[in-house]
Design goal:
Layout (H helix, E strand, L loop, with lengths): L1 H28 L1 E5 L13 E6 L31 E5 L7 E8 L4 E5 L2 E4 L2 E2 L2 E12 L2 E11 L5 E7 L10 E2 L4 E5 L18 E2 L3 E11 L13 H4 L7 E2 L1
Antiparallel strand pairs: 1-2, 2-14, 3-4, 3-14, 4-12, 5-6, 5-11, 6-7, 8-9, 9-10, 12-13, 14-15
């Protein structure tokens, strides 16, 4: 009887351990879920979106695994990201915090904002204004913004928003180093990104975690919370379920 009891415990622990290993492998090598906590990528990604990120798109580095074990400073099965990708990466400042931004600059590119326009290698990125003034979240505040469809040199189009008043007009020239990338938030005036060299700056190829592929769930945390659980049904954003990015 005692032997059977310990065998059952052992068998259950073995099953749990096996399931844990499989979960870690899936999370490290295939897909990892992420939660969007900030408004820096609005309106593309909203606070409360849950997304799946493919871990295999750019190959694997130490940052592909939980806790970023320091087993190598190389990237294996490396693939070059494309301009316009929605990239999850570890911030260079601490190699621990996950950010998601849009890849704008490739190695060797020169990036600059001039008179409110985005320039890549001296050429103005074409943009077409769409719709009327929109209110976009920035932390606890809402900004009046103008929305533009921007078209990158490789033909990728996306929606970017700029403050209607007081938007960033001019920056210095950013020259992207070898094996690094320049990333921006789509909510241009409410994003800490590669323009801020002291906190984010140029992102190393080694720090890439994966590419955002799909929104699998979304709810508006401003409507529902633990203290306002009765609104949880109204907070669901059904139109964003399983939305391909």
């Amino acid at each position: 009887m005692k032997k059977n009891f310990f065998y059952i415990i052992y068998d259950n622990l073995k099953t749990l351990f096996g399931a844990l290993i499989i979960a870690i492998l899936i999370r490290s090598l295939l897909f990892q879920p992420f939660y969007i906590p900030s408004s820096s990528m609005e309106p593309t990604l909203l606070v409360g979106d849950r997304i799946f990120v493919s871990k295999y798109t750019y190959g694997y580095s130490k940052h592909s695994f939980p806790f970023s074990p320091n087993f190598s400073n190389k990237r294996f099965f490396s693939k070059i990201p494309e301009r316009g990708d929605l990239v999850v990466f570890k911030t260079p400042a601490d190699n621990r915090t996950d950010y998601i931004k849009r890849l704008i600059g490739m190695p060797g590119d020169t990036i600059q904002f001039l008179n409110g326009n985005l320039l890549i290698n001296g050429g103005i990125i074409p943009r077409d204004e769409v719709g009327s003034t929109k209110l976009i979240r920035c932390g606890k505040f809402k900004l009046e913004t103008r929305s533009f469809i921007e078209t990158l040199p490789n033909g990728i189009k996306y929606l970017a928003v700029y403050k209607k008043r007081g938007t960033l007009q001019n920056t210095k020239k950013f020259i992207v180093p070898v094996d690094h990338f320049f990333l921006l938030g789509d909510n241009r005036d409410c994003s800490k990104d590669s323009r801020y060299l002291e906190s984010v700056g140029y992102v190393s190829n080694l720090n890439l975690v994966g590419e955002a592929q799909l929104i699998f769930f979304s709810n508006d945390t401003n409507i529902s919370s633990l203290l306002r659980f009765w609104n949880i049904r109204n907070s669901f954003r059904f139109e964003r379920l399983f939305k391909v990015l």
